[in-house]
Amino acid sequence: MPASLLQLKQLVFSIHPLSTDEWEDFAKLWKPFSVKRKEIITAMGEKEKYLYFVSEGVQRVYYFDEQNREATLVFTYNPSFGGVLDSLLLQTESRYFYETLTPSVFLRASFSELQLLMQNKPAVEVLIRQGITHALSGLLIRLVELQCYSAEERFLQLLQRSPHILQLVPHKYLANYLGIDATNFSKFINKIKI
């Protein structure tokens, strides 16, 4: 079994274990896909066609408006699922961009094949629902942090949750993700012993 498929299996089984037959059917959906650095995988206005599993690299989902305001919403990196999930599951035009920050290697499964498998294999549907529920839980925690925590508290929470992220993601994107001015972000890095 290729290393990326083994990583996918470990992630899947940590969310919701599948039987051997269910796993084999699920594994057949995933195809290798590679993208260079700073490439848009899914653009605003496009319908997300794939669920991605990140094998290598770092990506972000971000919003960009007519007034040149940008909001980094989420980062994806190994081992995690990626893509614009609401566009994928609702099959609507994306309101967001999915972009690589570094050269990236994925496995990806088409939504149409994934949907068919979910209809025929209830355990796969449970897996996807559990994965979405974990993502929603993380999003709600992030909303509380953005609305209730000071800039320094948001920075400290990020370091507690994902201490390795400072080495993975350029600091300007982390500052944007936290809603912190880049200058203040630099001050926090210099102030706090990491």
UniProtKB/TrEMBL annotation:
Membrane-spanning residues: none
Coiled coil: none
Top-level taxonomic group: Bacteria
CDD domains, alphabetized: CAP_ED
Protein name from the UniProt record: Crp/Fnr family transcriptional regulator
Organism from which the protein derives: Emticicia agri
